[in-house]
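User: quick one, fold this
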Amino acid sequence: MALNSGTKIGPYEILAPLGAGGMGEVYRARDARLNRDVAIKVLPHTFANDAERLRRFETEARVIAALNHPNILSIHDIGDYQGSPYLISECLEGRTLRQELQEGALPWKRAVEYGKEIARGLGAAHDKGIVHRDLKPENIFITHDGRVKILDFGLAKLANPNPSETDIPTVEAVPTSAGAVLGTVGYMSPEQVRGEAVDARSDIFSLGTILYEMFSGQRAFRRDTSAETMTAILKEEPPELSASGRPIAPALDRIVRRCLEKKPPQRFQSARDLAFNLEGLTDGSATSAPPVPAVASRPRTWAAPAIGAILLLAGLAAGWLLAHGSAPAEAPVYHQLTFERGLVYSARFAPDGRSIFYSASWSGGPIQVYSTLPDSPESRPLNLVDSTLFAVSPTDLAVSVGCIDRYIGNCRGTMALAPISSGAPREIAANVLAADWTPDFREMAIVRWVDAKYQIEFPPGNVVYQSDHALGYVRISPSAKALAFAKFVAPSGDGGWAVAIDLRGKELIHSQTYNSVEGVAWSPSGKEVWVGATVKQGWADAIHGLDFAGKDRVVLRLPGMLRLHDISSDGRILLSRESWRSGLQFRGARDTRERDLSWLDYATLEDMSLNGALISFDDWGEAAGAADLAYVRNTDGSPAVKLGAWSWAVLSPDGTRVFAAEASHVGAPAFSIVPTGIGESQTLPSINFQQAAAMGWMPDGKSVYYIADDGHGWRAYVQDLSGGAPRALTPEISLGPAQFESHIVSPDGKLMFARDLNGQGRLFPLTGGGSKAVPGWQVDDFWITWSTDGRSAYLYRDGKTSAVIYRLDLSSGKREPVATLAPGDPAGLTSIFDVRMTADGKAYAYSFRRELSDLFMVSGVR
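Assistant:
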């Protein structure tokens, strides 16, 4: 159906034709309602009664409508015009990849970028079970600003988990022919040529042919006839990419070759996996030769001798390389194993080197153990719920039952052995944080927490190392003569050292201090300990190799954070790419649901003003340089205001100042009063305390309080802002969770909440006299604030994906729930903490932590 300019189709006015294809004609049109140009694809009227074409057209509409990705053409609407179906999509400005390729091979940087974007778009489609089946340069569009869009899902199908019942083959029998091949010759996969059922890996093969053409300027499979081309796809390999005369690195060639494997199991198993490998290409790894410098056009008298010298040096260099066996390093190959949203706690290769076991919490669900295979994108749960994985033998899994988080993803619990085949776990030892088997699987080494100390036992019961520092990640060397592990500075952090000892506890290796340690394992040779770590601010971003001579080398570095899980005997690595965030949620008196007030990457709530209009928070993640930066932000969502390098910034009663500690101060705490707007900071007199926490304001705004340790225990102190020495408010108390609490002084300034040495919540009179227990107080309660009338308190119970706020009557001990805290997306949530609430109970805010992991298998690392 030819449409003339000015034709009206519903609210759309045809402007001009854009093109035509086997699935219909395309026009530019104007959407009068939204004042934008769109593209209209109309099925020809002569085909409108063709049931098969109509089915494919409607499938295209449903398929594209289900996708929402920047690298896939967006569909806006669908309808019928005079008996012909049409669909409305975004109108693109630019040209197809086919038009770009008419000018020859693309610059490698542009080709890699296009490849990544195509792979990301395919990954989004494959995640929804959608296979394109007709990927080719004509169906790849490059916009004027360089964005890639995948077009024409007209041949796509929804992948069915049981293809034997309902899958539609690529060759469909029709009365007038032996078979109708769906797809485009030259870009089809072998399984499409054979008329077999296809899945996402067929699209990966097609993308491989496109990558080959972008890099070489030649089609991978092109013969004189379609039959010869299909035969080549089935039986022949395309010419080497280097035959095009362009410098092509081995890493790039391997990626393309893997896409073009004849058998689907030998290709990349997911488009996301392919995209990640393309992301790993750098200037040095994507081309095998450096750029040739420009040469002056005017000849020089010294040119010939210089060339001779260069050739001589090149010859010497080549000889040295041959003699020393060196060659340009090849880029590692990354293979993604998990695709759900959540946190991977641990992962191990099975002894056969093929199966992989891991524990994870997906989509806010419980932690459990899974198994997977490298050539399968799916994982199988093993019915071990609320368990984390320690180690794997040929017959058993060593797991932690009843995981208690020591730090993100690291658990302490009861170690049990669970048969791989099936069966209930058998408990072995309590308070275990890590475990590993000897290479012959006859003995185990464990890390255990006993009497407030951490110890390594090998075998269990025989203590070979003990420390006040937290220990983890114990691994036995391939020779079974040494143990490697991590030693942490603090129980609730990941800064520390990698250590190796012999079986008598003598240190063999002690690393430098790492700001972050995320996993320890032995190299396949046993000559190095490999550790996921970083020496700079932030989290682990590299694998360091430590030898017995004290050398520390970087084995592998990634952009962003990683966690090292395991290394196989043939050198493959299991690592996870981590994304850790801390965010802020707020709900005001008039809000119907919580609002996200997160800022940068690791915002942690410190305080909320009495009227709920202002919050203060710290940020100490990567964006802040891993150093505390204090901010204030209006809860209406306006941008945050940075106050500077401060910690524990708590708001004054009128919200015009914060009481804060100097973030970079070393030694005794140093306090200041910092204005939230115009004004000068006030430095408080230095104090002779070792450390302090739980800072706050007295109700009159003329003095501040804090809990500090003078070397003889923790006490609460008050400091007048007008001067003078601090004075004690309480006898010795227990700090514990109190370091995260605020607003512990009653509205009339007469009582203070604190915990006694047994952890019992008590109310201490500030004018002297005995304290009294808080009725109804429970050991897991966290104090939030007093009620306006001082007769009740608001408390909460810490949680992972949700937490409950209670109002506790301070006379009767009766409690009632008043709010449930729960971010809308539970995936990767590991903690809800630092809850603040207004005294009238009408507004609240809190912090939450979200840790997300993607598990990868990496090969080619040396």
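User: anything notable?
Assistant: The two ends are 62 Å apart (CA to CA).
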